[in-house]
Amino acid sequence: MTPERTRARLVPMRPRDPHEPGRVASSLELFFDLVFVVAVSVAASQLHHSLSEGHVGGGLLSFVIVFFGIWWAWMNFTWFATSFATDDWLYRLLTIVQMSGVLVLAAGIERVFTEHDFRIVVLAYVVMRVAMIAQWLRASHSAGAARRATLYYAGGIAIVQVLWLIMLLLPESVQLYAWMVFVVAELAVPVVAERRGMTPWHPHHITERYGLFTLILLGESLLASANAIIEALHDHESLGKLIALSVLTLVVTAALWWIYFWPPHHTAITSFARSLRYGYVHYFVFAAAGAFSAGIEVEIDSITHHTELSEVAASYTVTVPIAIFVLGIWWIALRDNADRVVNVVVPLGAVLVLLDPLIPIPFALTAIFMAGVVATLVLRPPAERSAELG
After folding, report:
1. Which residue has the higher pLDDT, 237 or 93?
2. Which intervals of the chain are annotated as region Disordered (predicted)?
3. Sequence-separated (6 or more) residues with CB below 8 Å from residue 55
4. Confidence of residue 1 (pLDDT cuts 50, 70, 90)
5. 222 pLDDT higher than 90
6. Which residues of the chain does CATH 1.20.1410 include?
7. Could you give the angle at the alpha carbon of 306 between the alpha carbons of 303 and 312, nearest 5°?
8. What is the pLDDT of residue 163?
9. Is the distance from CB of 228 to CB of 300 less than 8 angstroms?
């Protein structure tokens, strides 16, 4: 059935049915994700250089700050789209405006790491968020019971963007403190808005969107694995170690994929409180996936003697992201679908990974621990799948 359109060829932006059958990610949403991954890739690359040069604290802080802007803009659009997505020219245009902001943001990431200059990143972020304000205001005209929520979203986002612009005028010595306060303000907007009238979300659609973005982020780690092989072809002295690193990276990346997609994620967002936990904790999951690829590059530098870090410190740049990723997914999606054995093995595996750098062959043991976690998941399927098999 063809949707009704106005004279301007626009489709009324009514709330989508949260139980709509066959709801899947659109080609526009997939296109949108690819642009964001460009920014993630740049951020991971800058993190790699900072860590290899020994600037651990500054590099991690810059990554945390930049990644918040990337993740929050992606997440806001994703949840909006699951509730109000249409497929007319204005919706597409505003989405492309957001994508342009991401590309500009990516261009400004290097200055954040090297000069602590946030101007380009903040201005690009504000462009993305202004486009999001326009989307919420448009949705308010046909939102029905969710109208107050859409207006609170639009107003809340607008207020916080003014704060971000004010931050650029503050002395550099207080900008970090302002950033922390304004992050809390951003995170508070959905909490306040949803209490004024819940927006509908499609559990299968929203978790598919998170899963697809996770796949793309894990793809960055596979690229790092390929880089290890490429480096091996030019460094015959370290040939064996680099090829081993490449193989182990593939094993661990596959294990992270297996762990992430083991539980039925749609059961993790059955209430507003649970959806907040699911969405917000994914910041750490996504950031860890991006940092994991940076850690692999640091390991390559360590093997080829191109880093200021010790071997132990270089190993931690790999194992810490793995542990955060696993613990994050266990907390928000896996533990409620697992039995006692799985709920012991998964977090224990993450903790053991953190001990690996203290052992002479750390990354090999990381792969073994992750393979052990996966073997446990194979033998003990989630509750929902067990019922199907039974």
Report:
1. 93
2. 1-20
3. none
4. very low
5. no
6. 203-385
7. 55
8. 97
9. yes
* Confidence at residue 361, expressed as pLDDT on a 0 to 100 scale: 64
Contacts 24+ apart (CB under 8 A), 23-28: 23/202, 23/204, 23/205, 24/205, 24/208, 25/205, 25/208, 25/209, 25/212, 26/81, 26/85, 26/87, 28/87, 28/92, 28/95
> Which residues have C-beta within 8 Å of that of residue 213, sequence separation ≥ 6?
33, 36, 37, 74, 286
Instruction: Using the predicted structure, report yes or no on whether residue 326 has a pLDDT greater than 50.
Output: yes
When mean pLDDT is compared over 55-64, 240-249, 357-366, the highest value belongs to 55-64
CA dihedral 205, 207, 212, 213 (to 10 degrees): 120
Q: What angle do CA 241, 246, 248 make, to 5 degrees?
A: 90
What whole-number distance in Å separates Cα of residue 260 and Cα of residue 237?
36
Alpha carbon of residue 113 to chain centroid: 19
253/259 Cα distance (integer angstroms):
10
In the chain the first and final C-alpha atoms are separated, in Å, by: 40
Helix (H) or strand (E) holding 265: none
For helices 56-84 and 172-194, angle between their N-to-C axes, nearest 10 degrees: 20
Amino acid at residue number 135: Q
Which class in CATH covers the domain with range 203-385? mainly alpha
The Cα–Cα gap between 346 and 352 comes to: 10
Name the average pLDDT for the chain.
91
Pick from 60-74, 136-150, 151-165, 348-362: least confident: 348-362
**Phi, psi dihedrals of residue 334, rounded to the nearest 5°:** -85, -45
pLDDT at res. 4: 63
Whole-prediction pTM: 0.93
Which residues, in sequence order, are CB contacts of 300 under 8 Å at separation 6+? 224, 227, 228, 231, 242, 245
Q: Which amino acid is at 165?
A: L
- Look-up of token digits 């224990």: 348
Residue whose tokens read 């500009």: 104
Amino acid at 153: Y
CA distance 34 to 15: 26
Are the C-beta atoms of 335 and 343 separated by less than 8 Å?
Answer: yes
Read off the amino acid at residue 334: L
CB-CB neighbours of 381 under 10 Å = 18
- Sign of torsion, CA 22 27 30 36? negative
